[in-house]
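ok so I'm stuck.
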Amino acid sequence: MTEPTDAQSVADYLAAHPEFFEDNPELTASLKLNSALGGRTISLQDRQIEVLREKIRQLELKLSNLMRIAKDNDAINANFHQWTLQLWRSQDANDLGEAVAETLKDTFDLPEAALRLWDHCTDAGDARAFADQLKAPYCGAASGKPGLAWLENAATMQSAALIPLRTPGRPHSIGLLVLASPDAQRFSTDMATDILLRIGETASAVLEGLVD
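replied:
not stuck anymore, here's the structure
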């Protein structure tokens, strides 16, 4: 008696003999499968087309998402470039720290921004200790975070980015840059911080001459 063939054996055979359906074209048309769409019965050929269409749809969604991310990154890079140009034009400003915060607000359309250098700050409070322990910019809820009191409308801010300012050769921070928004998602905990790091490094380099 011939032993029954299990599903794995059939799969192995078809994988080893890809010409099987070419040699038996009548099977391709006669085999019926359940469709994932509506539960109807369709031919093997139609099922293959259905699977391919779904793969194409998923690829189109991925491509669309990548294009959106690329467009957003282009806009961010353009804004960063415009900000550095504005900083360059502000080199003779009486208050360069304020110029850094104001140009950031203008360029990136930020509701609130403030900057303090510890050598020129009398209200650092626990902001200095907080900045010293930051290894990367903080992004997340604004409530209760050091430096928020520097903002004009601190009570309405829902999210914030706190960027420590550092210069080479110094073990501690030289100041803190605070960006905030009433939009809770503007500075979410899962957002990338690459551009915030670049902003912090650029601001630190511009302000280095003001630090003893």
